[in-house]
Amino acid sequence: MIGKLIGALVGGEIERREGGRGIKGAVIGAAVAGGLRRLGPIGLALGAGYVAKKAYDRHRDRTRI
Known about the structure:
mainly alpha; 3 helices; flat
């Protein structure tokens, strides 16, 4: 279940980078979730790290003047 959530977040981040909000992010997220599951705990850590870095960068850019 955690893998599906991280996959959805990764798909959302990729779709946000591309500038759209649509089915493409969901498809990418589903593919990422499958790949993360195959990699096991390392894959979950990589996916969570990617999402955390993107959130941190977005927060840092917002607080910069």
